[in-house]
Design a protein that fits this description.
heterodimer, A: 116 residues, mainly beta, seven-stranded mixed sheet, four-stranded antiparallel sheet, globular, B: 111 residues, six-stranded mixed sheet, five-stranded antiparallel sheet, 11 strands, 0% helix
Chain lengths: 116, 111
């Protein structure tokens, strides 16, 4: 149980385009999902907390108009990187908080974004 | 001061030895503590979590929590080369529904 999927697993796009990444909890309902970004050899950086049916809470320094988050259902959250630039190239990882009360996070496999 | 501190390593241990990974946290309101393993180029996977002071064992892994010292550790017995990875410590503050991750400790288990 507690499986989280992400799609796509990797994407290459041109500068200026938008990219949507999907995060799904496959076998449990997740009222809270998290989006992280990780640059090579660096730690996870929390971008935003996504709550089903409400607006996402963004961390300081993360542009909400550039990184659009939608959590439309208890099993799906999406992150859209708008007008992507090469500096947005990174490993984007989502996680979902378990529903059994222990508050652990289960991570998706990640999406590697390369912006040319 | 960072919320969660870890020694970046690398920590090198020979195969079969005990690897000891340490983590300190700053907020006494922290209530849940987690250890994740992350292989290079992959996302983190949960190893175990601990809530109460003391030890919690799961197979070759033992988590230790000392809330008075704000210290949590992970012991890996009979270390294997496949244990070579970066280990992330995370804490959860229930009142703020916030998770904080350490920067991770890189573990190398030498055959």
């Amino acid at each position: 149980g507690a499986v989280v999927s992400q799609h796509p697993s990797w994407v290459i796009c041109k500068s200026g385009t938008s990219v949507k990444i999907e995060c799904r909890s496959l076998d449990f309902q997740a009222t809270t999902m998290f989006w992280y970004r990780q640059f090579p050899k660096q730690s996870l950086m929390l971008m935003a907390t996504s709550n089903e049916g409400s607006k996402a809470t963004y961390e300081q320094g993360v542009e909400k108009d550039k990184f659009l988050i939608n959590h439309a259902s208890l099993t799906l959250s999406t992150l859209t990187v708008t007008s992507a630039h090469p500096e947005d190239s990174s490993f984007y990882i989502c996680s979902a908080r378990g529903s059994n009360g222990y508050n652990e996070q289960f991570f998706g496999p990640g999406t590697r974004l390369t912006v040319l | 001061q960072k919320e969660v501190e870890q020694n970046s390593g690398p920590l090198s241990v020979p195969e079969g030895a005990i690897a000891s990974l340490n983590c300190t946290y700053s907020d006494r309101g922290s209530q849940s503590f987690f250890w994740y393993r992350q292989y290079s180029g992959k996302s983190p996977e949960l190893i175990m979590f601990i809530y109460s002071n003391g030890d919690k064992e799961d197979g070759r892994f033992t988590a230790q929590l000392n809330k008075a010292s704000q210290y949590v550790s992970l012991l890996i017995r009979d270390s294997q080369p496949s244990d070579s990875a970066t280990y992330l410590c995370a804490v959860h503050l229930y009142n703020f529904n916030k998770f904080y991750f350490g920067s991770g400790t890189k573990l190398n288990v030498k055959p």
